[in-house]
């Protein structure tokens, strides 16, 4: 055997080994099974292309302030939905219900203006279903009834999540096994699910403990009173809101308490911890910049944070600049009466890439 053949054969073996290691890397694991999102432009009565995936997603108004979203090819049982109002006036949106229809996922959404009246609005909506397999980070969700019984759940460690009622409109959700350094790491999104009345949910308190993530969720009615309702809650740590990482290469999250939360609640998948920025853009308005992750198609979700009935959404559509930065201009927050207010929130930005 010639000496020249040995290096070539060795190089070929190394290449095969590298290919094998890449193919079984947890970072490439298929979590989730299904994912989809849409950015609905109420004025144009059409989805916004850069904020919608799959591209053939449709939205049909089915009543005043009510919409039916069809995510083609993404149908799956269970899963969770999140939705954020996009409106420069005080509005919120909530999930009504969702279900698989053949190969598609159908999601019904309700949007309200302050005071609790159904009202047309733009919105950003998101669906994910995960059912197992390795994960490249820590990830979990629950779809909880008002009694704490879980409609569906996922935990990337395989542990069982729980939702325990603690009084009217209050729940302690635990994600066991999703252990980080603490005291707060990662990010959360919460959404009310109600078919009959205006409802909104938020994260009240949150602790990253030695056993996992402990999250207190509060839900309110349109009058600002605590309300028993179904809700969804998703936790992400160094992964996208749909539970995958590398790919996607471009995602980020940020906790505004205010001011900014711990550095471990400010992650940029390209630049690392602490890279995302926030500046005040006026009463109740916060401009959040996610550098280097503005690649389409992407989605942004916002959840209010704190113990009061304040709520948050998006003032207008986010932008993707040549930086390429993703700029949320702005997160807007309101009191229950609809007055602009500076308050806590979490914001999560996620790309298909």
Largest sheet: 5 strands, antiparallel
What is the tally of beta strands?
A: 27
Return the structural class.
mainly beta
Percent range for β-strand residues: over 45%
Number of helices: 1
- Global outline: globular
- Into how many domains do the coordinates divide? 3
Cα-to-Cα separation, first versus last residue: 46 Å
Overall mean pLDDT score? 91
Order of helices and strands: HEEEEEEEEEEEEEEEEEEEEEEEEEEE
Helix content: under 10%
Low-confidence stretches: 1-29
Q: Round the Cα radius of gyration to an integer and report it.
A: 20 Å
Signal peptide: 1-29
Keywords: Signal
Question: Main attributes?
Answer:
5-stranded antiparallel sheet; 3 domains; mainly beta; disordered N terminus; 353 residues
Structure description:
- With 353 residues, this protein is mostly beta strands.
- The chain has 3 domains: 34-129, no CATH class; 138-237; 256-351, no CATH class.
- The protein is 5% helix and 49% strand.
- It is built from 1 helix and 27 strands.
- It has one helix at 5-23, and strands at residues 34-41, 46-47, 58-63, 66-71, 80-86, 91-101, 104-113, 117-118, 122-129, 138-144, 150-155, 162-165, 170-176, 187-193, 199-208, 212-221, 230-237, 251-256, 266-268, 272-273, 277-282, 285-290, 298-305, 311-314, 319-320, 326-334, 344-351.
- Strands 3, 4, 6, 7 and 8 form a 5-stranded antiparallel β-sheet that branches.
- β12 (162-165) and β13 (170-176) form a beta hairpin.
- Residues 1-29 have low confidence and may be disordered.
- Keywords: Signal.
- Residues 1-29 form the signal peptide.
């Amino acid at each position: 055997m010639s000496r020249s053949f040995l290096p070539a054969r060795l190089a070929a073996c190394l290449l095969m080994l590298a290919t094998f290691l890449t193919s079984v890397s947890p970072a490439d694991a298929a979590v989730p099974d299904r994912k989809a999102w849409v950015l609905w432009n109420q004025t144009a009565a059409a989805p916004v292309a850069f904020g919608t995936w799959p591209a053939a997603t449709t939205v049909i108004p089915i009543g005043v302030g009510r919409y039916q979203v069809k995510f083609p090819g993404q149908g799956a049982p269970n899963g969770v939905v999140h939705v954020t109002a996009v409106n420069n006036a005080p509005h919120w949106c909530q999930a009504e219900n969702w279900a698989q229809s053949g190969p598609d996922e159908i999601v019904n959404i309700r949007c309200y203006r302050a005071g609790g009246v159904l009202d047309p609005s733009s919105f950003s909506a998101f669906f994910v279903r995960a059912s197992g397999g390795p994960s490249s980070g820590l990830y979990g969700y629950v779809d909880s009834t008002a009694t704490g019984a879980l409609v569906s759940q996922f935990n990337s460690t395989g542990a069982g999540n729980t939702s325990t009622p603690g009084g009217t409109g209050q729940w302690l959700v635990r994600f066991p096994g999703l252990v980080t350094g603490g005291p707060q790491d990662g990010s959360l999104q919460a959404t009310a699910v109600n078919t009959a009345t205006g409802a909104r949910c938020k994260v009240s308190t949150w602790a990253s403990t030695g056993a996992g993530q402990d999250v207190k969720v509060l839900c309110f009615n349109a009058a600002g009173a605590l309300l028993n309702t179904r809700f969804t809650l998703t936790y992400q740590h160094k992964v996208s809101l749909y539970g995958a990482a590398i790919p996607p290469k471009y995602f980020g999250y940020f906790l505004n308490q205010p001011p900014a939360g711990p550095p471990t609640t400010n992650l940029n998948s390209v630049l690392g911890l602490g890279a995302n920025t926030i500046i005040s853009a006026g009463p109740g308005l916060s401009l959040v910049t996610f550098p280097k992750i503005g690649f389409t198609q992407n989605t942004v979700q916002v959840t209010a944070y704190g113990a009061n009935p304040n709520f948050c959404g998006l003032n207008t559509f986010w932008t993707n600049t040549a930086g390429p930065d993703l700029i949320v201009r702005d997160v807007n927050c309101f009191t229950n009466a609809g007055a602009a207010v500076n308050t806590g929130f979490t914001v999560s930005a996620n790309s298909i890439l």
